[in-house]
Design brief:
By secondary structure, the chain is an alpha+beta fold. The chain contains seven helices and eleven strands. It has two domains: about 80 residues, no CATH class; about 160 residues, 2-Layer Sandwich (Alpha-Beta Plaits). The strands form three sheets. It has a six-stranded mixed beta sheet with strand order 5-6-4-9-10-11, sandwiched between helices. Strands 1-3-2 form a three-stranded antiparallel beta sheet, covered by helices on one side. The protein has a two-stranded antiparallel sheet with strand order 7-8. Strand 10 and strand 11 form a beta hairpin.
Length: about 290
């Protein structure tokens, strides 16, 4: 409907009451009474006052009111369209943010195990080192390597090996707190970043993971069930440390050296980097 006609219909009764004259909407064809005063509000549509002619001042007032109402309607429509555009833009931005978040999350994950990948974990290690040195909070890092994993691949095939890696990843994930960072460092090597964790309490976490792995049957190749064990190395920063030059690479190297010591001493065991010495030290198992 034409805006002017729409405006005229909305203000017809208030204008009639204001002027004390009956106004009506008519068309050019209908209007024939010469006593009527006509105001054209749209092509083919007129506003008329039957029997009570409108003065020129009243005609001007009605015309201006109709124009103001029409202009206000147009502005309201523009505002509504602008609001719709803003809403669409906000929705588009929200969709984009969600997609970016999903992409960021996907790029931080190892495709096989679903754990965080090496690069994400290294970034988190650097963040936790900075936080630890800034706030004096403890942190620990576990490096875990599956013992004799090559035998699984050679005996059952690489698909079976992939399945074992997925089970190990699930065990690691289920052994974590919500703010721990479990990751696949590469191949059959995994890592676990433990924020706000003192070094004396870390062996308990490591032993829980080691024990659960050696007691978890893993079905491979359809029917066969294998048991895998893991060697674990521990390093970290404790409260009050003065090791301010420590980097992610240095911390990983310390945990790795403890891990290799566990391998050298017979596997399926835990070794801890000794900040006061030059070599890792063994961790006694809980019985």
């Amino acid at each position: 409907m034409n805006r002017q006609r729409d405006a005229a219909e909305r203000i017809l009764r208030p204008l009639s009451d204001l002027l004390g004259k009956p106004l009506r909407i008519a068309t050019d064809e209908v209007v024939s009474n010469r006593d009527e005063t006509l105001i054209r509000v749209a092509p083919g549509t007129v506003l008329s006052s039957q029997g009570n002619p409108l003065t020129s001042e009243e005609r001007r007032l009605i015309t201006e009111i109709l124009e103001v109402v029409r202009w206000a309607d147009a502005q309201e429509d523009r505002i509504k369209k602008l609001e719709q555009q803003v809403t669409h833009l906000a929705n588009d931005n929200m969709d984009l943010a969600v997609k970016n978040q999903m992409l960021s999350e996907a790029s931080a994950r190892d495709s096989l195990t679903g754990l965080y990948n090496r690069w994400y974990v290294v970034d988190k290690i650097e963040s936790e080192i900075n936080r630890s040195l800034r706030n004096g909070s403890p942190m620990a890092l576990l490096m875990l390597d599956i013992d004799h994993f090559k035998n699984v691949n050679d005996t059952y095939g690489h698909s079976a090996g992939d399945h074992v890696l997925q089970i190990v990843a699930r065990v690691l994930k289920e052994s974590c707190r919500v703010y721990d960072v479990p990751g696949r460092y590469g191949g059959e090597e995994f890592c676990l970043l433990l924020p706000d964790t003192t070094l004396p309490s870390t062996p308990t976490v490591a032993e829980r993971i080691r024990h659960r792995l050696e007691t978890t049957p893993m079905e491979v190749a359809g029917h066969a069930s294998v048991i895998v064990t893991a060697s674990i190395g521990i390093a970290g920063i404790d409260v009050g440390t003065s090791d301010a030059v420590l980097s992610p690479a240095a911390l990983i190297d310390r945990a790795d050296r403890a891990l290799y010591q566990a391998k050298h001493l017979g596997r399926n065991r835990i070794e801890m980097w000794d900040a006061g010495g030059s070599e890792p030290r063994p961790v006694e198992r809980e019985h």
